[in-house]
Amino acid sequence: MPSRTGQPSAVPQTGAAITGCGAITGLGPDTASFWSGLVNGRSGIRHWLGKDSRIDSKIGGDLSDFQLSGYLADVGQDYPEDLAHKAKKLLRATPLSGVLTAAVAMQAWVEAGLHESPAPAARCAHVCAGHNLGHAYISENLKTFDEDPEYIEPLFGVHHLDTDVVGVTCELLGIRGPSFMVGAACASGNIAIITALGLIRSGAADVVLVTGAPVAQDSLVLQGLAMIDALCTGTFDDEPERASRPFDALRAGFVPSEGGAAVVLESAASARRRGVAPLAALLGGACTSNAHRLTKPDQNGQERAMREALTTAGMAPDEVDYVNAHATSTPLGDATEVAAIKSVLGARAAEIPVNSTKSMTGHCLSASGVVEFVATVLQLRHGIVHPTINQEKQDESLDLDFVPNEAREHRMGTALSNSFGFGGMNSCVAVGAVS
């Protein structure tokens, strides 16, 4: 197990090797641009394209102009020719969420070397984090249906299902093991990662692709979130890059985003057989319920998730070197999480950086856990913690080290990443550096 001094170690038998990552956010179309944006404190938030002008939400992490052809010509130029050709064929009529999920999956798959050194297809699994992915697609087809039912998309009966996102990615990569969705609101990503670890520990799979499926944003859903005062609306509409400001005194709600990510997890034995060096290690994770449906965060539930994650990872609180916070930029949510971190880590909480990836990407909703997991892995590997941007006015009641506005070097052996969701769902995963 990695030590509190930041010294790395090997992947433990009870953990999983992380061998590939992929990300597409407003910061860029791959992990390199994602990392560059994070380190340089760049915001990926802009004005929405093509949304109903009547809605209160005007800004977000908009990826609606993503084009697969341009992506394959740029990011995918080193992909195997047959994979790129297959992607063009399978995804040509696929809605945006499915296209983006497949794109991040290809990134992680290729980085893991599974295109050159494959694992048996029946021993590869796919756990997709997300639900209600097709809101925008359904809304557009509903408009067409109102005019003439005969002209809805010919494959609407398939594409409107979340499982189409799972299926098209499995077909693209030839995955034949257990494959399914995990839906737990904004905790979906972490819980999908924890589920994948369970598949590996149980022996049900050797390799598990975990995708955080981007949610293509729909005007109706955005307005619904605005009406319950969840979103930042009005305050920074003219300066989108300043809107997501976790922990800052001027925070006024989260900024939704269409970003997504993917990781490849596998047993240490599988990685050795394939001759692949792990990027980091998944040490453990846990999830809890608040036993209520309200959106109000619950400190006790968050604390239990963090404590149980540490237990599953075989870690003590004083061995945590860094925390990637859920930190959505809501007044109550950020304050509750800070209190939970302080309770769980004790004096250690004041000694380590606690930052928010969402300050730059916005809130990727059900994909956010995987996006932030990738951010955590990158920070461990580079020995740098990215900033929490837009720290302009300190909230005197929040007194941890939020890495304000500028990245810094920081030796890390272990990290926690939190994700909490509507419906009273809490999750935390523990990640370790490897030699």
Care to give the gist of this entry?
By secondary structure, the protein is of the alpha/beta class.
Shape: globular
Mean pLDDT: 95
Terminal CA distance: 11 Å
CATH-wise, what's the superfamily of the largest domain? Thiolase/Chalcone synthase
Strand order of the largest sheet: 5-4-6-7-1-8-14-13-9-10
Domain unit count: 2
Identify low-pLDDT runs: 1-8
Number of helices: 14
Quickly give the structural class: alpha/beta
The number of distinct β-strands equals: 14
- Biggest sheet, in brief? 10 strands, mixed
Outline the structure in words.
This protein is 35% helix and 16% strand. The chain is an alpha/beta fold and 435 residues long. It has two domains: 264 residues, Peroxisomal Thiolase, Chain A, domain 1 (3-Layer(aba) Sandwich), CATH 3.40.47; 152 residues, Thiolase/Chalcone synthase (Peroxisomal Thiolase, Chain A, domain 1). The strands form three sheets. Strands 5-4-6-7-1-8-14-13-9-10 form a ten-stranded mixed β-sheet, with helices on both faces. A two-stranded antiparallel sheet has the order 2-3. The protein has a two-stranded antiparallel sheet with strand order 11-12. The chain is globular and about 60 Å long. The N terminus is likely disordered. Keywords: Transferase. One of its GO terms (biological process) is fatty acid biosynthetic process.
